[in-house]
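pasting for ref
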Amino acid sequence: QVQLVESGGGLVQAGGSLRLSCAASGRTFSSYAMGWFRQAPGKEREFVAAISWSGSMTYYIDSVKGRFIISRDNAKNTVYLQMNSLKPEDTGVYYCAVDSKRSYVRGPIAGDYWGQGTQVTVSS
């Protein structure tokens, strides 16, 4: 009943941009916070950014603040991650997630539902 589908990953040169999309289907999650995590080879999965479904509140880790922008399109039940000025350190599998216990965002969220991930590779 719950599906999250990420898209938009790929190979990009350092300094370039990518826009990731996370589309919710089967059920809408308009009341819940959503966000993005990433996992690089040999590292633990880390939180990256989160947004209240209304879009009024966002939160980012320091390493991406000012470069990444999380946004939403309520009519499409879709969350985006605009990634600018990409660095090789941003390389990893990016996962979309829903936090079913939160509506608002003042810090990192916890993932209750996950997509399968999309690979982002930034070359130097």
